[in-house]
Amino acid sequence: AAVVQAAQQTLKGLSGGKQVPLAPSATLYKNPQEHIDKLWGLSDKDGKYVVGIGAKTGKPLSVKMLEQISGDNFVFERDIPKVFAKPFYTIEKAIDAASPAVKKHFQIDLAGYDMAVQHDTYTFTKKGKPTVIAQINKKGTFWSFLVTPENGLAN
Questions:
Q1: Residue of 124, 128, 135, 120 lying closest to 150 (CA atoms)
Q2: 21 - beta bridge partners?
Q3: Would you state the pLDDT for residue 12?
Protein backbone atom coordinates (compact mmCIF):
# COMPACT_ATOMS: atom_id res chain seq x y z
CA ALA A 1 0.00 0.00 0.00
CA ALA A 2 2.86 2.39 0.81
CA VAL A 3 4.45 1.71 -2.59
CA VAL A 4 1.17 2.50 -4.39
CA GLN A 5 0.70 5.66 -2.33
CA ALA A 6 4.26 6.84 -3.10
CA ALA A 7 3.70 6.10 -6.81
CA GLN A 8 0.40 8.01 -6.85
CA GLN A 9 2.01 11.04 -5.16
CA THR A 10 4.89 11.04 -7.67
CA LEU A 11 2.52 10.64 -10.64
CA LYS A 12 0.48 13.56 -9.32
CA GLY A 13 3.66 15.67 -9.33
CA LEU A 14 4.53 14.56 -12.87
CA SER A 15 1.07 15.36 -14.22
CA GLY A 16 0.88 18.90 -12.88
CA GLY A 17 -1.16 18.08 -9.77
CA LYS A 18 -3.81 15.93 -11.45
CA GLN A 19 -4.82 12.59 -9.96
CA VAL A 20 -3.67 10.01 -12.52
CA PRO A 21 -5.04 6.45 -12.44
CA LEU A 22 -2.39 3.74 -12.08
CA ALA A 23 -2.12 0.84 -14.49
CA PRO A 24 -3.37 -2.35 -12.81
CA SER A 25 0.05 -4.01 -12.50
CA ALA A 26 3.48 -3.40 -11.03
CA THR A 27 6.84 -4.98 -11.88
CA LEU A 28 9.71 -5.64 -9.48
CA TYR A 29 12.98 -4.78 -11.27
CA LYS A 30 16.43 -6.05 -10.38
CA ASN A 31 19.25 -5.00 -12.72
CA PRO A 32 22.66 -4.28 -11.13
CA GLN A 33 24.11 -3.18 -14.51
CA GLU A 34 21.49 -0.42 -14.52
CA HIS A 35 22.20 0.47 -10.84
CA ILE A 36 18.95 -1.15 -9.66
CA ASP A 37 18.70 -3.62 -6.77
CA LYS A 38 14.95 -3.82 -6.13
CA LEU A 39 12.62 -1.25 -7.60
CA TRP A 40 8.85 -1.44 -8.06
CA GLY A 41 7.89 -0.04 -11.47
CA LEU A 42 4.40 1.42 -11.73
CA SER A 43 2.91 3.37 -14.59
CA ASP A 44 -0.16 5.44 -15.25
CA LYS A 45 -3.06 3.91 -17.17
CA ASP A 46 -2.21 5.91 -20.32
CA GLY A 47 1.48 4.91 -20.33
CA LYS A 48 2.77 8.49 -20.16
CA TYR A 49 4.80 8.04 -16.96
CA VAL A 50 6.70 5.27 -15.18
CA VAL A 51 7.64 5.64 -11.52
CA GLY A 52 10.16 3.49 -9.66
CA ILE A 53 9.62 3.06 -5.92
CA GLY A 54 12.39 1.48 -3.84
CA ALA A 55 11.31 -1.93 -2.51
CA LYS A 56 13.27 -1.34 0.73
CA THR A 57 12.96 2.43 1.10
CA GLY A 58 9.39 2.91 -0.17
CA LYS A 59 10.55 6.19 -1.73
CA PRO A 60 10.42 7.34 -5.35
CA LEU A 61 13.81 6.60 -6.91
CA SER A 62 13.07 6.92 -10.60
CA VAL A 63 10.71 8.73 -12.93
CA LYS A 64 10.34 8.48 -16.69
CA MET A 65 8.23 10.87 -18.75
CA LEU A 66 7.69 8.73 -21.84
CA GLU A 67 5.84 11.43 -23.78
CA GLN A 68 9.17 13.28 -23.99
CA ILE A 69 10.67 10.54 -26.19
CA SER A 70 7.74 9.86 -28.48
CA GLY A 71 6.97 11.22 -31.94
CA ASP A 72 9.60 13.66 -33.21
CA ASN A 73 11.69 13.14 -30.08
CA PHE A 74 12.09 9.38 -30.56
CA VAL A 75 15.66 8.15 -31.20
CA PHE A 76 16.51 4.51 -31.89
CA GLU A 77 19.02 3.01 -29.42
CA ARG A 78 21.53 2.42 -32.25
CA ASP A 79 21.36 6.12 -33.27
CA ILE A 80 22.00 7.56 -29.79
CA PRO A 81 25.84 7.77 -30.15
CA LYS A 82 25.44 9.68 -33.43
CA VAL A 83 22.57 11.96 -32.33
CA PHE A 84 24.32 12.81 -29.04
CA ALA A 85 27.93 12.74 -30.30
CA LYS A 86 28.49 16.28 -28.96
CA PRO A 87 27.33 16.99 -25.37
CA PHE A 88 24.12 19.02 -25.37
CA TYR A 89 24.89 20.74 -22.04
CA THR A 90 27.82 22.14 -20.09
CA ILE A 91 27.86 21.16 -16.39
CA GLU A 92 26.21 24.43 -15.31
CA LYS A 93 23.48 24.24 -17.94
CA ALA A 94 22.80 20.55 -17.22
CA ILE A 95 22.42 21.25 -13.50
CA ASP A 96 20.12 24.21 -14.27
CA ALA A 97 17.99 22.07 -16.59
CA ALA A 98 17.78 18.98 -14.33
CA SER A 99 17.54 20.68 -10.91
CA PRO A 100 13.82 21.56 -10.80
CA ALA A 101 12.67 17.97 -11.50
CA VAL A 102 15.30 16.43 -9.21
CA LYS A 103 14.31 18.75 -6.37
CA LYS A 104 10.57 18.24 -6.97
CA HIS A 105 10.54 14.44 -7.22
CA PHE A 106 13.49 13.42 -5.03
CA GLN A 107 14.14 16.43 -2.74
CA ILE A 108 17.79 16.55 -3.87
CA ASP A 109 19.61 19.82 -4.52
CA LEU A 110 22.16 19.41 -7.34
CA ALA A 111 24.16 22.50 -6.28
CA GLY A 112 27.83 21.55 -5.97
CA TYR A 113 27.41 18.27 -7.87
CA ASP A 114 29.91 17.14 -10.50
CA MET A 115 28.69 15.83 -13.84
CA ALA A 116 29.79 13.25 -16.37
CA VAL A 117 28.09 12.84 -19.75
CA GLN A 118 27.96 9.99 -22.21
CA HIS A 119 25.70 10.56 -25.21
CA ASP A 120 22.20 11.28 -23.78
CA THR A 121 23.04 10.21 -20.21
CA TYR A 122 24.13 12.70 -17.55
CA THR A 123 25.44 11.39 -14.23
CA PHE A 124 25.49 13.85 -11.31
CA THR A 125 27.71 12.92 -8.35
CA LYS A 126 28.74 14.52 -5.07
CA LYS A 127 30.75 12.93 -2.28
CA GLY A 128 28.47 11.67 0.49
CA LYS A 129 25.29 12.30 -1.55
CA PRO A 130 23.06 10.16 -3.78
CA THR A 131 23.96 9.86 -7.46
CA VAL A 132 21.43 11.06 -10.04
CA ILE A 133 21.49 9.48 -13.50
CA ALA A 134 19.39 11.38 -16.02
CA GLN A 135 18.69 11.16 -19.74
CA ILE A 136 17.71 13.85 -22.23
CA ASN A 137 15.73 13.73 -25.45
CA LYS A 138 17.17 15.24 -28.63
CA LYS A 139 15.77 18.67 -27.72
CA GLY A 140 17.59 18.63 -24.37
CA THR A 141 14.58 17.90 -22.17
CA PHE A 142 15.39 15.59 -19.27
CA TRP A 143 12.85 12.75 -19.42
CA SER A 144 14.35 10.00 -17.22
CA PHE A 145 15.85 10.16 -13.71
CA LEU A 146 17.25 7.46 -11.43
CA VAL A 147 18.57 8.13 -7.91
CA THR A 148 21.02 5.70 -6.35
CA PRO A 149 22.87 5.82 -3.03
CA GLU A 150 26.51 6.92 -3.36
CA ASN A 151 28.33 3.92 -4.91
CA GLY A 152 25.25 1.74 -4.51
CA LEU A 153 22.13 0.31 -6.08
CA ALA A 154 18.61 1.78 -5.94
CA ASN A 155 16.36 -0.19 -3.60
A1: 128
A2: none
A3: 87
How far apart CA 93 and CA 104 sit, in angstroms, is: 18
pLDDT tens-digit profile of 80-108? 999 999 999 998 999 999 999 999 999 99
Rounded to whole angstroms, how far apart are CA atoms 5 and 66?
Answer: 21
pTM, 2 dp: 0.85
Q: Cα–Cα distances in Å, from 87 out to 52, 91, 133, 146?
A: 27, 10, 15, 20
